[in-house]
Amino acid sequence: MSETQVKQHGTAAFYGQAVASFAVALLATAIGILKLQTDAWVRGFLGIAVLYLVTSAFTLAKVIRDRQEAGALTSRVDQARVEKLLAEHDPFEKL
Hints:
By secondary structure, the protein is mainly alpha-helical.
């Protein structure tokens, strides 16, 4: 039984826009933190908080993607089983 895999990829333009948007947002946040009129330890705390938020956002995105891929695989296996049962079923077979 041959299995066809469907891979969904975004366009290069979408990928570029996503990377550029992330870079601009991170840079703007960093500049905003550096320009704050406050103590260095407050700026340091805010910088670490932003980095923690970014890494946890990446982790969350990966977990969501992994769960979605696992669900898609299960769905494909179930679909293959149904197709096999339908292919083997002969409605005109005498019982």
